[in-house]
């Protein structure tokens, strides 16, 4: 026989025993007064008094089976930390992706009607992923395969769990293709390792059914998250060249070179602060790695700030050997080094050109002045000779005319 439990003396210790017995994590709350609506049939237990350490509710003291002084308006409830679950799918890691929730054993999608930064803040907080950077709508991370379980989710942004936000009701929605809600969180630390196809699951409290406020979504432009998987370049000539390796769940592993090219190399160089990508060597150019191959079929546009923003197959999923490990050669640690070298070279060329032109002009001016001076001397000499000649001629003429 199934029956309800009266909320007399019911508290978080009792709820803790229930959550532990069901394998649902820790007790978050122990709501009474038929918080989850009134039950039907018999009320089986009353005055339950657990210490919180019992392995089963039946080990807790109570008034006796079928002994109670309650009505179904006093049916008790439990909110555990792990029911139902929430996951982010198809994103660049555990802190971004399409929002999905679990209800009655079924995974489903969340509609983007009224979805905005308020809801995204709550999801990110619940997942311990830092602050929300964006609340993408219109299936930014692809359409889910299940049905829509939630619509018109209406959070204030201060809730600790999405389950504390009102919504239209489970399975009640007016959504269609391309209306999946998503989130992009900042993530809590720079050492976090994000996963694109192995989503993080996190608790969602049961959601109270109520009409959502008439508030439309306002989605800001997407910003790159602040925390991404750690990268390193191994067996190169320095920290800015070598075999690409990433860290996942405490394990370092290599990246397969299928689909690997300069766009992917550029993202790695940018993330490592190593300037521009000069080359994207394939075929274990820097020697084959050891251990796991963590990533395959990485595809970047080249503009991403982190390799985690690029799509790839699931972690550990590949059809490669270490003879296909991908590599990267970057321009150097200073992302502006190449630009500075170019600027210096251009400056030297301009300086030398100006010097040569100035020297030529100076020589031309000197020659011109020399020519003027020489011409003037010649004219003076000629005038002097002419004057001497005239004087001499005049003197001779006078002498000849004298008696």
Q: Report the major sheet.
A: 7 strands, mixed
List the uncertain runs. 189-227
Strand content: 15-25%
SSE order, one letter for each helix or strand: EHEEEEEEHEEEEEEEHEEEH
Describe the structure.
- This protein is an alpha+beta fold and about 400 residues long.
- The strands form four sheets. Strands 5, 6, 7, 8, 9, 10 and 11 form a seven-stranded mixed sheet that branches. Strands 12, 13, 14, 15, 16 and 17 form a six-stranded mixed sheet that branches.
- A hairpin with a 2-residue loop joins strand 12 and strand 13.
- The longest helix has about 60 residues.
- The chain contains four helices and 17 strands.
- It is elongated, with a radius of gyration of 41 Å.
- The chain starts with a strand and ends with a helix.
List strands and helices in order, with pairings.
Blueprint: E1 3-5, H1 12-22, E2 27-29, E3 42-45, E4 79-80, E5 85-93, E6 96-103, E7 106-110, H2 117-126, E8 132-134, E9 148-150, E10 182-185, E11 201-203, E12 231-238, E13 241-248, E14 251-255, H3 262-272, E15 277-279, E16 293-295, E17 327-330, H4 337-401
């Amino acid at each position: 026989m199934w029956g309800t439990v009266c909320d007399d003396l019911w508290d978080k210790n009792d709820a803790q025993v229930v959550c532990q017995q069901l394998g649902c994590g820790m007790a978050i709350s122990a709501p009474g007064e038929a918080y989850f609506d009134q039950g039907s049939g018999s009320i089986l237990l009353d005055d339950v008094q657990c210490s919180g350490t019992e392995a089963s509710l039946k080990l807790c003291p109570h008034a006796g089976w079928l002994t109670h002084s309650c009505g179904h308006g006093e049916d008790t409830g439990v909110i555990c930390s792990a029911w139902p679950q929430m996951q982010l799918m198809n994103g660049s890691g555990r802190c971004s992706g399409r929002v999905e929730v679990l209800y009655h054993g079924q995974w489903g999608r969340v509609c983007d009607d009224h979805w905005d930064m308020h809801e995204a803040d709550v999801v990110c907080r619940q997942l311990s992923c830092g602050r929300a950077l964006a609340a993408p709508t219109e299936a930014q991370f692809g359409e889910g395969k299940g049905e829509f379980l939630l619509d018109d989710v209406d959070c204030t942004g201060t809730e600790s769990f999405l389950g504390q936000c009102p919504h239209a009701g489970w399975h009640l929605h007016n959504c269609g293709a391309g209306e999946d809600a998503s989130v992009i969180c900042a993530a809590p630390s720079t050492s976090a390792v994000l996963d694109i196809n192995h989503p993080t699951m996190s608790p969602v409290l049961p959601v109270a059914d109520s009409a959502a406020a008439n508030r439309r979504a306002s989605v800001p432009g997407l910003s790159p998250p602040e925390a991404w998987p750690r990268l390193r370049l191994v067996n190169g000539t320095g920290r800015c060249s070598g075999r690409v390796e990433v860290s996942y769940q405490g394990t370092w592993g290599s990246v397969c070179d299928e689909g690997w090219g300069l766009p992917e190399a550029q993202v790695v160089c940018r993330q490592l602060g190593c300037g521009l990508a000069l080359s994207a060597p394939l075929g274990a150019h820097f020697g084959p790695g050891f251990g796991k191959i963590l990533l395959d079929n990485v595809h970047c546009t080249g503009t991403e700030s982190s390799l985690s923003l690029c799509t790839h197959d699931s972690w550990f999923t590949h059809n490669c050997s270490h003879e296909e490990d991908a590599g990267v050669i970057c321009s150097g640690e200073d992302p502006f080094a190449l630009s500075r070298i170019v600027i210096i070279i251009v400056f030297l060329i301009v300086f030398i050109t100006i010097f040569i032109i100035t020297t030529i002009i100076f020589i031309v001016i000197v020659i011109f002045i020399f020519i003027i001076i020489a011409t003037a001397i010649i004219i003076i000499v000629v005038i002097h000779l002419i004057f001497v000649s005239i004087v001499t001629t005049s003197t001779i003429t006078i002498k000849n005319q004298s008696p």
